[in-house]
């Protein structure tokens, strides 16, 4: 679907452009062909599928029956598969042009290759959402353990079309005394609320899995329990996903290591490497310059509209915390009334429900301080364009954790030193993961995850997702 849709759009657009230039009397070879000439390339869809098989981009079948790749890794491999596929077409055309005069534009091939690389994951996600809604193609899995981790996994998979996993049920040992028993009872109640049934004690997990032919196990146990049953699990399950803790730790760039028969995991914190930090700064500057060039007309139009629709300055500056907790002033186009602070104080003093909402999220779902134009600016995120100047000055990154105020530091707790080790970003993982629709604990998790697992591919993935989030105005207020 992705290949056929994007190629059809690019071919027809290129042909229409050529016809338009011809109508204007401009001599050009563009459009000097029939779109039907490109029908000979229909096998490219099969080639793209085969390339994805080679790159390991499928799961849930004999080709890749385990858990799905992380989103960023899937995006990276889809880009590689698209580039290999379309470079192969260009090589084929180079040979074919030696023996035929058929008019096939390499611009169309190159443009289609780039768009397929950037859009393939979105097409996949749409198809996943359809299959998830129809309850088709879901992979049955079992949970081992009744804990905070098990509850979090069950909650994530319940509404997650990306993984394709369906939790059939969970198994847990008996916790008879003290705090462990209370935690187990709380976890049992939570899992029941998520619709995950209790199937029995851990000793029966293999027999039930055999009877139902379930080959994937999500082990959400502490190390002691997992070590005791690892051999029993391995006697049946083809894939065992071990999830011992709810804490975030570096995983991208990690690799398996072994010392004298002792297996382990080497975790890489890429933001601590000078070469990677230089690469990050270079990418931020280049991408910010491109964004500024594309949106430069808005730096003329929006100030005029702001002045015409409400009194007050064009720009709004607010103190935020930057790298290592150093304060700086972030730039924005003004989206609120000039007396917004006074309005907020009055509102919080007079309405306890709104005060509670503000204390929880530092945002209001229906904020009376925002001007009519400001609502549009926020929905489209155009109010944040001046933050590009913060990027050029080195106070912010184009992509990174969101900038926070001093009062929010307490919500990060022990994670704040990790969070503040990098520059805050104009956009980031939080902004493309629901934005205002996510709760504060989830924001902290996303920011911490980004810092510990940063990679250039993650930045490119976030930038592409930001474009879609802004175009569809998902989660913005």
Q: What does this protein structure show overall?
A:
The structure is a single chain. The protein has 3 domains: 2-134, no CATH class; 139-246, Rossmann fold (3-Layer(aba) Sandwich); 274-335 and 370-471, no CATH class. Helices cover 51% and strands 11% of the residues. It contains 18 helices and 11 strands. The chain has a 5-stranded parallel beta sheet with strand order 3-2-1-4-5, sandwiched between helices. The protein has a two-stranded antiparallel ribbon with strand order 6-7. A two-stranded antiparallel ribbon has the order 8-9. Strand 6 and strand 7 (262-266) form a beta hairpin. Helix 1 packs across helix 4 and helix 5 packs parallel to helix 6. The protein starts with a helix and ends in a 6-residue tail after the last helix. The model has no long low-confidence stretch (mean pLDDT 82).
